[in-house]
Amino acid sequence: MAKAETILGKSQVSSLQSEESLTRSEESRLESRESRMGSPGPMASWESELAAIQHSLKFVMKLKEEFVCPICNGVVLNPQQNSCGHIYCFHCLRGLLETSSPSNQFCPVDRAVITPAEIFQDNCCRREISTLEVYCTNSPACSSVLTLNQLQEHLRLCQYEQLQCTNPGCKEVQQRRYLQKHMANTCPHRREACPHCRQLFQLSVIQDHVQSLCPEVEVECPDGCTDKIPRHKLAEHRELCSEVHTDCIYWKFGCSVQGKRENVKLHEDAAVSHHMLLVLRSNSRLEQQVEVLQEEALLKQRDVQTDSLLLTGLQKQIRPLIQESSSHNHIISTAQNTLSRQDEVLSSVQLEVQQVSQGLGPGLEDLEQLKKSLDAVMQEVFAAEALREHIVSLEENLKQHSGLLDLHATQLSLNKQHLQELEVTSYDGRLIWKIEEFRKQREAEAKGQPACLSSVPFHTGRCGYKMAIKAYLNGDGEGRETHLSLYVVLMPGDFDALLPWPFKQTVSLSILDQSGTGNHQSLSFRPDPTNKCFQQPPPEAVSNVAVGFPCFIPFDTLETPRNAVYLKDDILFVKVKVDTAGLEQL
Q: What is the CB neighbour count within 10 angstroms for residue 118?
């Protein structure tokens, strides 16, 4: 390495070099001949990693002046030699060249011009520096002594290295030898398993999870019985709890007895004859209602038959008009051809008239003959115009008949739809909805057509709330493309003004098991009285906003359940049940 014997800050530089320095310089040039390019080369990995602690290194032996970078005053990393013989850190020299103009690029030691084309990597000096012995940066705690190129490898394993805890949210810094114990035993942000459900949670939220969310924690029955039940089985327990207040199962037939389940059960066993009388009366009323519905259906059927006859008559009337229109179109086409020919004749006649006018004397007889021909042509033109007006009148008459035919067809479709709704409408707060071609409709929904499916409306009574089910076969909201989404929606009904609002009845939605084992999938919700979704629907609206479960059941559970069959022959059955307990029938 060519080294100028000078110290930074002196004004003069010696021109003499030691024999050892000359030899070293020649050796470095020979070794770096292949690497000499117009700009400094990249640093080795250990040198780039040491750049951050370059000025905090402690060497066992005092660092030679020739190994000190004159730009940063630290140990030279990836040494680059200038033509003046001084060496610099790769990153220091690059920074100097990038931040100064070409006319101001001088060596800070002897003010020699720095020419990028003459800079080369000094591998000889690099090897010497890499073998310098340094103390571990964690000394005196760590007593290790290593060569400079081994320091970073040592720091990756040094037990005294200060490291930050990797638990999310923790900023604690510990020595490597204590870090694992801290992360596993004392870190307040560590994750531990819930003692009940064994799920992993951050330590700070486990207590809240156990108190309010853990499904395996046993809690007291909210209805006051002495049993303790796992939180996720509360809904099942409530179906059997003797302390739950319920109605007599014959309430729909007129029995008004209410109370605790065990008391109501005793009443049901004791009042069998009274209940049978109520059932008979209800059946009589239902028979009368069925007769009324049958009469209405018969009247609708007669209306449909009348409309069909009227439609047939209109079709018979319109056929001649269509044929006549076709005939007139042919006549018009013939007349237009004739008119075109007459126009040509007229043009030739006009030309002849001009010629005759020029030689008026001898051509008076020819002129008279041409005048007669022109009159005949004009008569044919007038006849063609009259025929055209008659055809326009026929076309307007045809449009009127077509509009009347479309109106009757629309009314017929509405009557058929109303008749179908009358046949399937439910008035007991329950509905079983059969969804056919489930997978085909789900694929169509995934493409955006349609966005969802809606069931036929159902009612909680003859004069009760009007409701419907909405299903997103490809999922909705957070259940998009992963779950089947089911909702219930309130619709404007004929008796809304007489019903209590907001709607407060518990609603249950189920996917029915078609295997016969009864392993139905069900979820329920109780309406929030403050939610606008359960207020009276405006008469002009189609419905309120739908309420339900965006993540009702995952697709994999729906397609391949363990002990049930929900999809059979690509058919899915969805059931809704409204708890009408306490709801007075009008």
A: 13
